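User: Predict the structure for this protein chain, please.
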Amino acid sequence: MENLVQGLNTQFNFEIESAYIYLAMSSYCKAQGMDGFAHFMYHQAKEEMEHAHKFYEFLHDTDNEPTLEAIAKPEVNGGAFINIFQQAYEHEQEVTRRIRELYKKAQDDDNFETLEFLGWFIKEQVEEEDNFRGILERLERIGESWSGLYIYDRELGQR
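Assistant: Here is the predicted structure, written as C-alpha cells:
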C-alpha cells in the first residue's frame, strides 16, 4: 500500500506540473496573438488543477497526506502551433501511461477504493487523447495557412 500511496502522491504532483505546462503553452499562444489557442490551453491548465485536487482529496479521504514537490520550469518548444498541440498530445499520452501504471499497482494490491477512484481518470484520459488527436488532425489540414489558423483559433476560444 505504501508504494501505491507514493504513486498517488507522485501523480498528484504530476497533475500540478501538467497545469504548469499548459499555462506555459497558453502564455506562448497569447504572446503570438492567438487568444483562442491561449484560452484553450488555459482551460486545460485549470482542468489539470482540478485533477490534482481530486488526488489531494482522495489522499486525505484515505488518511494519507499529500506531499507537494518542487515543480520544474516547463519547456515549451514553440514554433508552429501544431508543435504546441503535438507536445500537449504527447503529454496526455504520458499522463495516460502513468494512470494505467497506478491502476495496475492498485490491482496488484487489491485496493478497490483506489481502482474505483482511478477508473474516472482512465475514462478522462480516453477523452483527452481523443480531443488532442482531433485538434492535431485539424491543424494538419490547416497547415501554416494564417486564415485557417485564425478561424480555428476563434473556434478553440469558444471552449
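The CA atoms of residues 140 and 157 lie 19 Å apart.
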